[in-house]
């Protein structure tokens, strides 16, 4: 397991989520959207819209690996 901090555009701060190593991008997005909704954050995200969401590597990350999020079955790590 790893802690993944995801910032949703327009939200005041990152969502911290525990994600299994080798989780798919799609599964990771679903976990983040669920936690985001449970915390009552805005703008509201619907779980029905997860296919329209992507993960992008932070510009501030020290990692050189890029997450290719165009394919939802790709792994996060």
TrEMBL record:
Domain DUF7054: 2-64
PANTHER family: BNAC05G50380D PROTEIN, OS02G0448600 PROTEIN
Protein name: Ppr containing protein
Pfam families: DUF7054
InterPro entries hit by this protein: At4g22758-like, DUF7054
């Amino acid at each position: 397991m790893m802690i993944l901090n995801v910032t949703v555009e327009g939200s005041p701060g990152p969502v911290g989520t525990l994600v299994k190593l080798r989780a798919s991008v799609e599964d990771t997005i679903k976990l983040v959207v669920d936690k985001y909704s449970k915390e009552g954050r805005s703008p509201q995200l619907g779980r029905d819209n997860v296919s329209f969401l992507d993960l992008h590597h932070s510009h501030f990350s020290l990692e050189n690996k890029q997450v290719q999020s165009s394919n939802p079955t790709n792994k996060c790590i």
